[in-house]
Specification:
The protein has nine helices and 41 strands. Helix 2 links the parallel strand 4 and strand 5.
Length: about 450
């Protein structure tokens, strides 16, 4: 593959999407369709890519951030016209083969790309079309075969009634001998119902020159799927979602209900783990064996250990150890490390903190920018006061400490090993190991205040 290249057509406006965003940037499972196509090319060892941009091209530029060469199709004059814009790129790869594919058809796969190239080379083809058999090929160009290969591709709007009955459809993916493609591009014309330059017309031109055209019939009909509107985009997401869920089930992951379950392509889940409804798992998350995740969890870029249970948890870019129990209604913010055996209860937030083995944070607590030891107990309503309006500081809590209810730990501050803080204290100084810290204001009582304050509101007997 090292000498070959790819041109990805990503200039589509997608009028029916009703958005300023170019169609290839709409997301399937949280990732732009264009990125799905780029990854398929890279997985097939095609690293030299050219992206043809068009409608609101700055969005494409902002997304790619200079990763790949781009060319601009200023006017939308068809797929053939789009490829013409990459002429300079193609001329730089004159002695190789070029893959042409659409940036809004996300289900192209490495196997199809590689197998089509193998057929392309073994048969000595100047062009090899990737085709698929579809139950309903309406809207797709039909592949017209002959004894020694294919004779042409006929677009839906130009097809006869007999040709429309053909179920072998053009997926929009082609392998070209680059020199043959460039010569054919010089000869295509907009003599069709749409008045556009069709890339499909290059096939007939190549055949007319006595060169061979073939078709690789992929076993993956999903390579032809795209979306023209938001309804179609939803269908793509559903197809991708269920494909991934089925793969995890084959690997021993259990789903009691798939309602609302979405799992990213790069997620790894161990056998014996249960995923409950409403759970979203994204990024490069790794979940070990025999966990229970859900219901209604959102896990992004986390590593989760064995036998851990997460219930109504949102966790981002963090590590959660073995035999941890978290939830419900817990937020684990980035750069947190929750070690083995930790228990975190309802309405707790942990941010950029290390929580030691066996520590319990029962409920209604905020732990931010903290280093917490083993077997620490947090009472209800504890807050690590980590931000003074100018800078953030850390709190350190030693092993076996006991933090009383409604304690404010004003950072920077250290609570020593096996130390106690009394309920309702605001701790502003370090607490020595094994000590009890009490920091409360003097209580004052004003007799009769309530009666005077509420005069007129208190009903007389």
């Amino acid at each position: 593959m090292s000498n070959n290249c790819a041109v990805i057509l990503a200039g589509g406006k997608g009028k029916r999407m009703k958005s300023e965003l170019p169609k290839p940037l709409f997301e399937v499972l949280g990732e732009p369709m264009l990125e799905w196509v780029i990854k398929a090319c890279k997985n097939a060892a095609l690293n030299d890519l050219c992206i043809v941009k068009g409608y609101n091209a700055h969005y494409i530029d902002e997304y790619l951030c200079g990763r790949y060469e781009t060319v601009l199709q200023e006017e939308q004059k068809g797929t053939g016209h789009a490829v013409m814009q990459a002429r300079k790129f193609l001329e730089e790869h004159l002695d190789s083969n070029t893959l042409i594919l659409y940036g809004d058809a996300p289900f192209v796969d490495e196997a199809t790309i590689s197998a089509a190239l193998e057929k392309h080379l073994s048969e000595g083809n100047a062009v090899t079309i990737v085709s698929a058999r579809l139950e309903n090929p309406f809207g797709y160009g039909r592949v017209i075969r002959e004894e020694n290969g294919i004779s042409c591709i006929v677009e839906e709007k130009d097809a006869t009634e007999e040709q429309k009955k053909i179920d072998e459809a053009n997926s929009g993916i082609y392998w070209f001998k680059t020199s043959a493609l460039l010569e054919a591009l010089d000869e295509i014309s907009p003599n069709n119902a749409q008045g556009e330059y069709y890339l499909t017309d290059t096939v007939g031109i190549i055949i007319s020159k006595g060169l061979r055209a073939g078709a690789y019939l992929t076993p993956n009909p999903k390579v032809a799927l795209g979306a023209n509107d938001k309804k179609g985009l939803l269908q793509l997401n559903n197809v991708a979602r269920m494909d991934i869920i089925e793969k995890h089930m084959e690997n021993g992951v259990e789903f009691l209900c798939t309602d609302g379950v979405t799992i990213g392509r790069d997620v790894i889940i161990g056998a014996g783990t249960k995923i409950l409804q409403g759970t979203i798992i994204t990024g490069k998350t790794i979940i070990s064996e025999n966990c229970t995740i859900g219901p209604n969890c959102l896990i992004d870029d986390c590593i989760i250990g064995f036998n851990t249970k997460l219930n109504y948890v949102q966790a981002y870019q963090s590590v959660i150890g073995d035999n941890v129990k978290i939830g419900p209604f817990v937020h684990i913010r980035p750069d947190s490390n929750i070690k083995s055996g930790v228990k975190i209860g309802d309405f707790v937030e942990v941010k950029n903190s290390n929580i030691g083995e066996g520590t319990a944070i029962a409920h209604l607590t905020y732990v931010g920018d903290s280093d917490v030891g083993r077997n620490v107990n947090f009472g209800c309503g504890v807050v690590t006061v980590n931000y003074d309006g100018a800078k953030k500081s850390r709190t350190t809590i030693g092993d076996n400490a006991f933090i009383g209810c409604n304690t404010n730990l004003v950072a920077p501050v250290t609570v020593g090993e096996a130390a106690y803080t009394a309920a309702g204290s605001t701790i502003t100084k370090d607490v020595p190991a094994n000590a009890l810290a009490i920091e409360r204001g003097e209580m004052k009582i004003k007799e009769g205040y309530g009666l005077r304050k509420l005069k007129g509101r208190i009903k007389k007997d």
